[in-house]
From TrEMBL:
InterPro entries on file: Metalloenz_LuxS/M16, Pept_M16_N, Pept_M16_Zn_BS, Peptidase_M16, Peptidase_M16_C
Listed Gene3D superfamilies: Metalloenzyme, LuxS/M16 peptidase-like (3.30.830.10)
PANTHER family: NARDILYSIN, PROTEIN YHJJ
Pfam families in the cross-refs: Peptidase_M16, Peptidase_M16_C
Transmembrane segments: 12-30
GO biological process: proteolysis
Name of the protein in question: Peptidase M16 domain protein
Organism encoding this protein: Prosthecochloris aestuarii (strain DSM 271 / SK 413)
Record's keyword terms, sorted: Hydrolase, Membrane, Metal-binding, Metalloprotease, Protease, Transmembrane, Transmembrane helix, Zinc
Listed cofactors: Zn(2+)
Length: 984
């Protein structure tokens, strides 16, 4: 994984997609040819494919998946390589992941000013690293590293760092990123449709001859990423689980990011050899979904990627794992809350097991009516439980997890999870549930296919798993033929004592290794330089796409449900799904009991249905509801199949107006909330980004701390909470709808709902919280057991002003909002001080709130002085780069030209605009004005906003490792306790 800013892959790769490529199969694939006067291109497709997929195989073996989808003038792209951490040599793990990073460094053309001279220095660096890794004497190694550092600075004189990112930004790409996992490395981009030719030119060049430049600073970035994983309790659980399930297969014997010892002794030559071995066209696929002509596009791909030559691939023979005959237990420790995880091993994605596993996983956990949902979560037997199916090529896994309640042992949690599997074996689940699961899977698929990204992710899985695309498309139909009795038999056959259980304890890890900081001389950044390749590519003219902006009056229909309640709707012309929202201008700032009341609601039934019966009824018709609460607003969401809209809305209405008290559920809820509060104080992200951040903005009394005290929570009654619900639906609100129903008929149907016929009452007064501007620089420190130190900086500025948004947008793009920004280049690329770093001028969400300078850096504690110094220098003086400024401006304009706000986002764009006091699409303001902004404008903005502001720095880290003297130079240091920042 390359960047924390965009397209970040989940920790566990969990997609339902099971499908793949085939050229001839029993599923009656159709073979077609594109018509061309020069060359014919054969492709395969399958009947009734809703994606209209074409699959090509070019002469050099490159596979191409295409799904034309013309809902906006953009194309989502994924380039997949069948090579991941399972292919890493055992003696040098982490190669696949490290090569992913290096594929962003350019080639002998991209990012090079004089490759002939640069190449000489790079060869020296390659040789020095080989000498370094074979040397054991510490003094000799230190001397070799000094030579590496010195030579790297010479080589950097001939390079343009991040030129790949600059090029993609210039053509209006979004989400530029990549990820590596066990058997794949995938490179991602979302590009304007009119930039396809340029993108293909960049990517074909990128994969032709990647150059391992800027190696030692990027290696230090990977060190930082490794240190981040050492601080991750989730990583510890994952590694313990997979090492138990896979004692022979590389899924479990090595990790994606690599062993620390291997990272300390890298080999550039091994990385090059890995590239030559696996990055060949017959092991790669280009996956495209979006606005393009397939016939024209395949010709372009063939023309540009034919430069890649095929090569015979090494054969990976998956080791055969022995059957587990008894449970294998592991114990891991870390600062976050306790948890228990159980894992079972199955055959791979293209197996009978995968279909059964997918169904069984949903029978256990579907967020509404699964056995885990009802028996454990609804009944509050544990704090939080779930189930997850992980499909991989060679093997699959089924993972059950739960967090304990106060006083509950992890063994008790394990037994409760295993009991749910016993219920499946006995068939103690409703006969209709498998059919409802199939219905749920169909809805998930419809939602996935609504996005170009979702389509390409399906193609990627298809290619990586080497599965037949017709089999993929047929998966739901295939699973629908599986009977309840067959599911029971499968469970009895596969779920025995053959599992791995990981006990995650709250406590100090016995081993807390870290990778020591090497001496690195900051590299020359060469911001103002451009390679010949980049100049020629950007000089190419292409047909411009005219932007489209929202007109709220035209794009949103407005009907009156009652004289006080309006319906705002956008039609869904793609499928039969709907989403409906009740939106209230009331939140936790209006009532401290509201959040708890809505939590309580999810555990209640009605006068005619128990809680379990209500959830089963909802799931059976393919509907779901959820609640989102914020400081000053909330919404209740109902979604599902339009054919069942009437039944769905009536179910929701019955719960809102007829919820029955349940004192036993309330007592469990109280104890669960108290345990969650305790667990929150152990969560690194919760501490820094919510508790500390809110304390810095407001002081001890803030929206974050505006909650019931523990005593108040324990004393609250069912009547008080149900009164909150009763009052809520009588407050003034509005209804948002995205779906196929005609607005007038929908408004008429909604008029008949019980709560619509009651007299509405005004929203109650909101508790005011004033954002505090500090009179001096402050440093707040919270002690936390971690390898890294994480720092947030906040500086308050003016209240929201829409006239400033174009300038702010361009400033953020240039300064610190992405991978081609000056902050990222200086602190990560040139100085290797962090894996994750950004600094932006944050725009508020409410017109009455302030803008903030918001900066973040996560780094090793021993790099803290350099990291803070580097960030401080950039706040004092804005580096000037005409090339980067032009790229930032062009990127903003190109993205806006090709962005189309669709579906529910139209409704919520209007909601956001209203909160900011405007009645128009702010993107038009940006587009109309950003072209006239000069560098002097953003330089003056930086000078006025950054140099004179008092700052609050928040530092989270292990106190004994923090340089308190250094921190004292940045302001008055105050150590905060968790009780102070959480308010309970």
């Amino acid at each position: 994984m390359r960047s924390p800013f965009s397209g970040k892959k989940p920790f566990l790769k969990v997609f339902f997609t099971i499908g793949c490529l085939i050229w001839l199969s029993a599923f009656h694939l159709i073979s077609c040819k594109t018509m061309s006067s020069v060359k014919d291109y054969s492709y395969t497709t399958i009947p009734e494919d809703s994606l209209h997929t074409r699959i090509y195989r070019l002469e050099n073996g490159l596979t191409v998946y295409m799904s034309p989808y013309h809902n906006e003038p953009r194309i989502y792209t994924s380039i997949a390589v069948r090579a991941g951490s399972k292919n890493d040599p055992a003696e040098t793990t982490g190669l696949a992941h490290y090569l992913e990073h290096m594929l962003f460094k350019g080639t002998d053309s991209i990012g090079s000013l004089d490759y002939e001279r640069e190449h000489i220095e790079l060869q020296k660096i390659i040789a020095l690293y080989e000498e370094y890794r074979s040397t054991e004497d510490p003094d000799t190694r230190a001397e070799i590293y000094r030579q590496i550092d010195s030579t790297s600075n010479i080589a950097a004189q001939y390079a343009v760092p991040n030129e790949y990112d600059k090029l993609l930004n210039s053509i209006g790409a979004r989400g530029t990123n990549a990820y590596t996992w066990v058997e794949q490395t995938v490179y991602l981009n979302d590009i304007p449709a009119n930039q396809l030719d340029k993108w293909l030119s960049i990517e074909s060049e990128r994969f032709r001859n990647p150059v391992m430049r800027l190696f030692h600073t990027e290696l230090e970035t990977v060190y930082e990423e490794k240190n981040m994983t050492m601080d991750s309790d989730s990583r510890k659980i994952w590694e313990a689980l997979y090492s138990g399930l896979f004692t022979r297969h590389t899924y479990g014997t090595q990790t994606t990011i690599g062993e620390a010892e291997h990272l300390k002794n890298p080999s550039i030559q091994n990385v090059i050899d890995y590239y030559r071995k696996w990055y060949v066209p017959n092991n790669m696929a280009i996956c495209l979904a979006g606005d393009f002509d397939p016939d024209e596009t395949i010709r372009m791909i063939d023309e540009k990627f034919s430069v890649l030559k095929p090569r015979e691939l090494p054969v990976f023979n998956p080791p055969i794992e022995e059957e587990l005959s008894q449970p294998v237990a592991s114990h891991v420790y870390g600062p976050e809350s306790e948890e228990l995880v159980i894992g079972f091993r199955f055959d791979g994605a293209d197996s009978r097991d995968a279909d059964y596993l997918t169904l069984l996983d949903k029978i256990l956990h579907n967020q509404t009516a699964g056995l885990i949902d009802l028996n454990l979560n609804q009944e509050q037997q544990v704090l939080e439980a779930g189930s997850m199916a992980i499909l991989m090529k060679d093997y699959s896994t089924h993972i059950l997890s739960a967090k304990p309640r106060e006083g509950q042992s992890l063994d008790d949690v394990r037994n409760l999870l295993l009991e749910q599997l016993e219920l499946v074996k006995k068939g103690e689940f409703p006969d209709w549930l498998p059919d409802a699961v199939i219905n749920d899977l169909k809805i998930e698929e419809l939602k996935t296919w609504e996005s170009n990204r979702g389509r390409t992710e399906g193609f990627v899985d298809a290619f990586i798993w080497d599965m037949d695309w017709a089999r993929y498309e047929n998966r739901i139909e295939r699973m629908s033929a599986i009977t309840k009795e067959e599911i029971m038999a499968f469970a009895r056959e596969h779920y025995k004592e053959n599992y791995v259980v990981v006990y995650k304890h709250h406590g100090k890890d016995k081993e807390s290794p870290k990778i020591a900081k090497p001496p690195i001389t900051p590299l020359s950044v060469n911001r103002d330089s451009t390679s010949l390749f980049a100049k020629e590519l950007l000089a190419r003219k292409n047909t411009a796409i005219e932007p489209e902006f929202l007109d709220f009056d035209k794009d949103i229909s407005r009907e009156s449900i009652t004289s006080d309640i309006s319906l705002y709707s956008v039609p869904n012309r793609e499928n039969d799904l709907f989403s409906l929202y009740y939106v209230f201008d009331i939140g936790t700032n209006h009532s401290r009991r509201l959040d708890m009341a809505l939590d309580y609601l999810t555990y209640l039934g009605t006068s005619t249905a128990t809680p379990a019966a209500f959830n089963r009824a909802l799931y059976r018709i393919g509907a779901s509801f959820s609640v989102y609460t914020a400081d000053d607003h909330l919404y209740i969401k109902l979604s599902g199949l339009q054919e069942n809209f009437t039944a769905s809305i009536q179910l929701l209405e019955s719960l809102l107006s007829d919820a029955r008290p349940n004192d036993e559920a309330l007592e469990k809820l109280k104890q669960g909330l108290l345990k969650e509060r305790s667990d929150d104080k152990l969560s690194k992200r919760k501490i820094l980004f919510e508790a500390m951040s809110s304390y810095a903005k407001y002081g001890p009394q803030s929206p974050f701390t505006n909650v019931l005290t523990n005593t108040e929570l324990q004393q609250i009654s069912s009547d008080e909470l149900l009164s909150e619900i009763s009052n809520l639906i009588r407050y003034e609100h509005r209804v948002l709808y995205y779906g196929p129903q005609e607005p007038k008929s929908l408004a008429k149907e909604l008029q008949g709902l019980r709560h619509m016929q009651k007299e509405l009452i005004p929203v109650p007064a909101e508790t005011p919280f004033e954002e505090i501007a500090p009179e001096e620089n402050l440093v707040y420190v919270v002690d936390y057991d971690m390898t890294q130190a994480e720092i947030l900086m906040l500086s308050q500025d003016n209240r929201y002003s829409p006239e400033q948004i174009p300038l702010i947008t361009l400033f953020n793009e240039y300064y610190g909002g992405g991978m081609s920004s000056v902050v990222f280049q200086e602190l990560r690329e040139a100085k290797a001080l962090a894996y994750s770093v950004f600094s932006i001028y944050r725009i508020p969400k409410n017109k009455d709130e302030h803008h903030y300078i918001f900066s973040y850096i996560g780094t090793q504690a021993d790099k803290l002085p350099e990291a803070l110094s580097g960030l401080g220098e950039l706040m004092e003086k804005l580096p000037e780069s005409p090339e980067l400024f032009a790229s930032a401006k062009a990127g903003i304009q190109e993205k806006i030209r090709t962005e189309r706000v669709k579906r529910e986002k139209i409704l919520f764009t209007r909601e956001e605009a209203c909160k900011l006091g405007i009645d128009y699409d702010i993107r038009k303001n940006i587009y109309d004005h950003v072209g006239n902004i000069t560098f002097d404008d953003i330089s003056q903005f930086h000078k006025e906003r950054f140099n004179s502001k008092k700052r609050i720095m928040m530092v989270l880290g292990r106190m004994e490792n923090l340089d308190m003297e250094t921190l004292g130079r940045y302001g008055t240091v105050k150590t905060l306790t968790l009780d102070e920042i959480f308010g309970y």
